[in-house]
Each structure stands twice: as structure tokens, then as C-alpha cells.
Write a structure and sequence with these properties.
The chain contains 13 helices and 6 strands. It is an alpha/beta fold and 315 residues long. The protein folds into 2 domains: 3-11 and 186-314, Alpha Horseshoe (Serine Threonine Protein Phosphatase 5, Tetratricopeptide repeat), CATH 1.25.40.10; 31-183, Glutaredoxin (3-Layer(aba) Sandwich), CATH 3.40.30.10. A 6-stranded mixed beta sheet has the order 1-4-3-2-5-6.
Length: 315
Amino acid sequence: MSPRFAFKQCSLFTLLTIMILGLTGATALAGLKVGDAAPPIKVGGWVKGDAVTGFEPGKVYVMEFWATWCGPCVAAIPHISELQAKYKDKGVVVVGTSVWENEKDQAKVKPFVEKMGDKMMYNVAMDDRSGEGRGVMAETWLAAAGRNGIPCSFIVDQKGTIAWIGHPMQMGPVLAKVVAGAYDAKSAAGGETMMKQFQAAWRAGNKDEAAKIAEANLDAVKADAEMLNAVAWTLVDQPEVSEIQLAAAEKYAVAGVVASKRERGDILDTLAAVHFKKGEIDKAIEVQEEAVAKAGDDMRPQIQEALEKYKAAKK
């Protein structure tokens, strides 16, 4: 595996960890899933902001589940606040509900929120723990969706339907599409099904079969640049790549470049890697030079290193 794999923010297993293992993809195995009507809001009390008792038609809601003791939850709070500020005027309402906290932990919620101040600028509630179980919201949202870890966000669209379930740090691009009315939840669900099948074949060592699954389902994910890049990079970033795997990788890499409007350095880097594996050195260099020009500061050194590798191979 190449050193710059770590800099591929949409590597397959990162994507699967976020989208499949307990998040959006997990809903296929549970009662609550993308496309279902959002469950009711029943919290034990409001700590900050306005009380939200239901889903108003025409507005988009982000139901964010977190806990004071959860490090990743705390780390995601500023990002969630940024999204609330960005989309507040477009009808987005964020509700952060603390869950899985015992009586002692719940007593810490209000002081925690007060200490966060401007870093936590959205509505905050505590779960209803008046009955048995781990809390009403924890049961009707998280457990119902097969989610056994936090942080976890649900995006509820303008019709009160669950459009997406996932890690809040991955929510930005999806939220933008939902707000614009351009998010196809049905298509996204189909893509997640393909990814689970791809993962199962890949983990079983049936890499050619995984490639065939990907190729047969390209239309289901052709608009999802992240997923396209994840599959293409996984297929090409290995010491030995079969013709079947390489063919699928090329189709996904090309589609990823198109879906990203040729603006993503990391996705161009994937396409260049495909050309290099095919022995198309000149094409690899040409695309990699473009990747370097469009890469972010965090990835540019690794992409530049790959470019030097391709140039050395030509010599």
C-alpha cells in the first residue's frame, strides 16, 4: 500500500467505516433507514436554543447525537456549528441531543454546553431517560437505525424524511445537496448496497469479483465523487492489479473526475495512478501534474512525490 494512501480521505475502508459499519449502510439491516419518515422528537429537556418539537415542512433538520464523555463527539462540535451558521438562513435547524449518559453524566451536560459557548451554536437537548432503556431518542433513532456508536447525525429533508445517516464530519457535502433539493437518497442507498457487496467480496479475497460488482453498479454511484474515488483507489492501490480490476478502476476514476468537475487533486491523482498501472506513462504524468496544481496543501507533497516517480519511470 502506497504511503499516500493515508492522505486519500475517501479510501475504501475509511468510507466503509463511516458509511457502512454502523452508519448509513447499517440501516439496511435495521428498522430505521434512509427514505423512512423521521421518528418523533421526545427529549428530556432543552439546554440551549429553541425547543424543537417536530419537523416543519420546508425545513431541513440535522439530528446530532453526542455525549459529554465522547471525544470524537466533542471534536465534531465546532464543525457542526459552522454548518448551522452557514445554512441557518436556508432553513436548516440543528438539534444536538446528548445520549447514553447516566444521571451523573446528564448533570454535566448544561455546564459543558455553557463552557463551549460560541463553539456550540445550535439547539441542544438531553435525552428522555424517564423510562426504561437507554433513553427515548437513543432507542427510537440510534438503536432503530442499528447505530451503536456516536457521534452520529441524521439529516431530515424538507418532507420530514431521513435523507442521510452518518458521521457529522462527513455531513457537509450531503447537507449542501439536501438543502439545494439535489440529493437523491434512493440512489445513495443503492450505492451503499453496492459498497457492502464490494467490501464483502474484497475482504474474502475475491478481488476480481469485487471489481465486477463495482463495474456492474457504476450507474448507481456515477454522481458520487467520493464513492467513485474510494473504489477506484482501492482497486489500483495494490502491488498486483488484474486486467479486470484495472478496467473497473479506470471507469470509476474517470467517472470520479467527471463528478468532481475535474477540480479535485486527490481524484485526479487516482486517475493518474490508473494510467501508470496501465503503462500509459505520458498520460499519468499529464494528469498528475494537474493533480499537483489542484491538490490541497495537506496532499500536495505526496502527490508531487508520485509525479516524480512517474517521471523517473519514463526516463
